[in-house]
């Protein structure tokens, strides 16, 4: 049974922000938290210091585990805000039923907080490149949309050698793109400039095309011959990185991939949408070569005090228990790289995502990286086994506006193929189990 909840005024909330035991909880959609003005608020983003805990997540059976994993504890004073009083109170009562006692509601975010330029707010620096389903639907229909200038748009459903993932259901109007169009099956590195130009033109993409990418998560199984065929959304962000490297000026990713589209109940198509090739990419490839790092520069980074290689692999891969892939024989890690733990294995990114596959709260990622020694003042080259997970970590840092981030494209696969390159196994001396 719901109980009457205390309300906090704007005047009372201002000093509470500085109270370390108090937590402000934003239960609006993650896209609103990141920066999108979904209900016409004057400023997009969130109250400075607030944590993201969307109302949507209350439907998950393990909601309280999510809450605790975010460091929201019963001893905290908790203030909840939303777009509506009903939404805020719904989450507040969930907390009360879970044994939390000091709960208040703030109901003036839109009409008082967002309109007052003196009140502190934050947003993900490049939030416009991480889009939401309603925006994609509007843009694909040719409607006027925020942060869209009306130019050419192509929506790409990315997959790895799995057109059935596309044909079984996709966003209406989306074409499919196989990751193999942009990366080589021999090296898993990005293809040559000539090959990239040909592939992008075949998909109708020029440097001035806005490309919106997404993939479909289909429960990857390491026992499958090609587990990556079911890990579509990591592949979509891999394609985003390569397109950015090539020179596509406006690359966007649907936050949460196809799952987000399904969650809002939009129409799903099974049409095989034909591609419309173009004759000119209209830019020299690569337009942004600094986004990719190869082995020689990776070695320079390891020797530099102003740069870091960041290993976005799993713990079993790091210590040499497994290679991570059925086609990589050697097990171990690159000495000197910082561990940027992806999650359980080569086809999952749990530590960088929420349960609904949307990107994790960026403050949390930054805090985890800070504890690991990963900071924005250095040149960071993210890598994994072959580039997918490294690309997703890179994209997170890029979204945060970190100034010099790259992908070490060859990763463990290329590094381990050269017997002259050093490697290590076992628990690193600086890692705590």
How would you portray this structure in words?
Strand 9 (153-159), helix 7 (163-167) and strand 10 (175-178) form a beta-alpha-beta unit. The chain is built from 15 helices and 17 strands. The mean pLDDT is 95. Helix 9 (232-246) crosses helix 14 (388-399). With 433 residues, the chain is α/β, with parallel strands linked by helices. The longest helix has 15 residues, at 232-246. Helices cover 28% and strands 15% of the residues. It has three domains: 7-123, Oxidized Rhodanese, domain 1; 128-287, 3-Layer(aba) Sandwich (Oxidized Rhodanese, domain 1); 290-416, Oxidized Rhodanese, domain 1 (3-Layer(aba) Sandwich), CATH 3.40.250.10. The strands form four sheets. It has a five-stranded parallel β-sheet with strand order 1-6-5-2-4.
């Amino acid at each position: 049974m719901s109980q009457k909840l205390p309300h906090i005024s704007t005047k009372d909330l201002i000093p509470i922000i500085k109270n370390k035991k108090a937590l402000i909880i934003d239960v609006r959609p993650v896209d609103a938290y990141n920066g999108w003005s979904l209900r016409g608020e004057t400023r997009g983003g969130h109250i400075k210091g607030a944590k993201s805990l969307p109302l949507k997540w209350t439907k998950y059976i393990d909601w309280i585990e999510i809450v605790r994993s975010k460091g929201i504890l019963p001893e905290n004073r908790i203030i909840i805000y939303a777009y509506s009083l009903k939404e805020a109170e719904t989450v507040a009562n969930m907390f009360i039923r879970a044994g939390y006692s000091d709960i208040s509601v703030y109901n003036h975010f839109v009409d008082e907080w967002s309109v007052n330029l003196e009140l502190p707010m934050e947003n993900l620096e490049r939030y416009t490149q991480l889009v939401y389903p309603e925006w994609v639907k509007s843009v694909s229909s040719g409607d006027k949309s925020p942060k869209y200038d009306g130019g050419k748009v192509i929506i790409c459903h990315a997959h790895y050698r799995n057109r059935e993932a596309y044909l079984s259901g996709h966003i209406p109007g989306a074409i499919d793109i196989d990751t193999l169009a942009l990366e080589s099956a021999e090296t898993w590195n990005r293809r040559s400039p000539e090959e990239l130009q040909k592939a992008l033109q075949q998909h109708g993409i020029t440097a001035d095309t806005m490309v919106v990418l997404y993939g479909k998560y289909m429960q990857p199984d390491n026992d499958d011959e090609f587990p990556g065929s079911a890990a579509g959304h990591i592949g979509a962000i891999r394609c985003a990185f390569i397109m950015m490297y090539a020179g596509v000026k406006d690359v966007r990713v649907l936050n949460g991939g196809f799952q987000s589209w399904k969650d809002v109940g939009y129409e799903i198509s099974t049409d095989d949408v034909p591609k419309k090739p173009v004759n000119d990419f209209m830019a020299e490839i690569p337009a942004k070569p600094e986004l990719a790092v190869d082995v020689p520069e990776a070695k320079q980074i390891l020797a530099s005090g102003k740069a870091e290689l960041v290993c976005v692999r799993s713990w079993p891969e790091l210590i040499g228990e497994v290679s991570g892939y059925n086609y990589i024989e050697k097990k171990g890690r690159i000495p000197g790289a910082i561990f940027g733990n992806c999650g359980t294995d080569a086809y999952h990114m749990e530590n960088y995502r929420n349960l609904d596959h949307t990107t994790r709260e960026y403050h949390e990622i930054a805090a985890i990286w800070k504890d690991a020694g990963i900071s924005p003042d250095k040149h960071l080259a993210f890598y994994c086994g072959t580039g997918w997970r490294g690309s997703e970590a890179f994209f997170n840092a890029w979204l945060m506006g970190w100034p010099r981030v790259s992908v070490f494209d060859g990763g463990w696969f290329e590094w381990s193929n050269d017997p002259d390159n050093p490697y290590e196994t076992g628990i690193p001396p600086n890692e705590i189990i």
